[in-house]
Write a structure and sequence with these properties.
Layout (H helix, E strand, L loop, with lengths): L1 E3 L7 H8 L5 E9 L1 H10 L3 H14 L6 E4 L2 E4 L4 E7 L6 E5 L6 H14 L14 E7 L21 E5 L2 E2 L5 E10 L5 H16 L2
Parallel strand pairs: 5-7, 7-8
Antiparallel strand pairs: 1-4, 2-10, 3-4, 5-6, 8-10, 9-10
């Protein structure tokens, strides 16, 4: 973790503009082609959900702007981001939250995530990482979504990105698409950074 000098920070003016808002949060939902990811998961016998968690984390980690966080006016930069994601045990309706480092290997992460999820007993274990180093991720795999919002405290410096997605659906041309929703803080992230994330995510999925 590095403390950033706000006076020399290139984003200073834009940060201060959005810091004047009581609600600086914004969201966007867009389609993602997951055809290749779904096939990759079937070939390896791993969870599509865990693979998406890894892909989204790696895509955010690949965009510099996502590493900056607001701690009540102090700006810090984390070297890596850590996914914290909801999960369900088979046959249960009660969700819980798993938090673990992503690492570089998607398949290894999927297998470790499954093992960690199946053995976790607590709803939310004590974290090993600062909260603002996390990414919050969740899925509604039972239905396609067109938009989604998450709960949060009314703290305008909340710097944790939220990523959510719904059920993947055939598009009629042999592709499988899902809608991905991002909720972000405009103090730190603009539309161009969403575009960079989108390119990174597509690159990860197309490389499988």
């Amino acid at each position: 973790m590095t403390v950033v000098d706000r006076e020399s920070w290139p984003r200073k003016e834009r940060y201060e503009f959005f810091a004047g808002l009581a609600w600086p949060f914004w969201s966007v939902t867009f389609p993602v082609d997951v055809t290749g990811l779904h096939r990759w998961c079937r070939r390896r016998g791993v969870s599509f959900y865990y693979a998406m968690v890894h892909a989204v984390t790696q895509a955010m980690d690949g965009v510099e702007a996502f590493h900056y966080k607001d701690r009540e006016g102090s700006i810090i930069r984390h070297d890596t981001l850590v996914p914290s994601f909801t999960d369900l045990r088979p046959g249960s309706e009660d969700f819980y939250i798993v938090t673990m480092e992503a690492g570089a290997d998607m398949e290894a992460f999927c297998r470790k995530a499954r093992a960690a999820s199946r053995t976790q007993k607590e709803f939310l274990p004590q974290g090993l990482w600062p909260e603002d180093q996390l990414i919050y991720l969740t899925s509604l795999p039972w239905l396609p979504i067109t938009a989604l919002s998450n709960e949060r405290d009314l703290t305008p410096w909340d710097s944790i990105p939220r990523a959510s997605w719904g059920k993947y659906m055939p598009d009629g041309d042999g592709r499988e698409m899902l809608s991905l929703s991002l909720e972000l803080n405009h103090r730190l992230l603009d539309g161009i950074h969403i575009g960079q994330f989108y390119e990174k995510l597509n690159g990860i999925l197309e490389a499988l």
